[in-house]
Amino acid sequence: MRITVLWEDQRGGIAKGFGPHELLVSCVADERQCSRDEVKEHIVSAPKKGNGTVIKALKQDLDKLHGPVYAVLDRDKILELWPPGERPPACLSGIRKAMADKAPGSYDLILLSENVETLVTACCHAAGDGVPRSKPSPDERDRILGKLAWGDANARGNVRNAVPSFERLVGRVASRLSTVIPRR
């Protein structure tokens, strides 16, 4: 089984050591009680530059992507996909319905609360490090998330508890992989 995770990322493209993907892989391995390598072979990470590019991939490429597909977007920017007079209600159900109209198909939408910087902050707290004063560059973000990805499972558990939307992604991906990676 292969799973595709479309990530909204300012850099876009496939980058070696993409922090959100590496952290996801480690957290799913924790959940399945297996190695990172067992998980990594089943998850394809597809960072896309901007929410609009994720939507474009869902519209144009969904049938070509390895499924199931998860689209991970920053909640704080999601409403910008619609012009001001056409924005859906800001609640999760309103956003989900509007997304289904904008990009119909079979995929799971995950809205990071509020954005990937929330995940960075949670990782800094879990690692006992200071939180960056400004938005980290993609390379800085990847280093912060990577530190947790290859670090302590208990610290990753703290991150999962601190960011429920990321925990939802981990849980859903781990559940999908239960047929190919039995829990030990």
Characterization of this structure:
- By secondary structure, the protein is an alpha/beta fold.
- It has one domain (3-179).
- It is built from eight helices and four strands, in the order E-H-H-E-H-E-H-E-H-H-H-H.
- It has helices spanning 19-32, 36-40, 51-61, 92-102, 116-127, 138-149, 153-162, 164-176; strands at residues 3-8, 43-48, 69-74, 108-112.
- The protein is globular, with a radius of gyration of 16 Å.
- It starts with a strand and ends in an 8-residue tail after the last helix.
- 36% of the residues are buried.
Structural class: alpha/beta
The structural domain count equals 1
Describe the strand arrangement of the main beta sheet, using strand numbers: 2-1-3-4
The fraction of residues assigned to DSSP E strands is 5-15%
Low-confidence runs of at least 5 consecutive residues: none
Number of helices: 8
- What fraction, in percent, of the residue positions are helical? 40-55%
Shape: globular
Instruction: Please outline the major beta sheet.
Output: 4 strands, parallel
N-to-C series of helices and strands: EHHEHEHEHHHH
What number is the mean pLDDT? 92
The count of strands amounts to 4
What's the alpha carbon Rg, rounded to whole Å? 16 Å
Distance between the termini: 19 Å
Would you spell out the secondary-structure blueprint of this structure?
Blueprint: E1 3-8, H1 19-32, H2 36-40, E2 43-48, H3 51-61, E3 69-74, H4 92-102, E4 108-112, H5 116-127, H6 138-149, H7 153-162, H8 164-176
Parallel strand pairs: 1-2, 1-3, 3-4
Helix pairs in contact: 1-6, 1-7, 1-8, 5-6, 5-7, 7-8
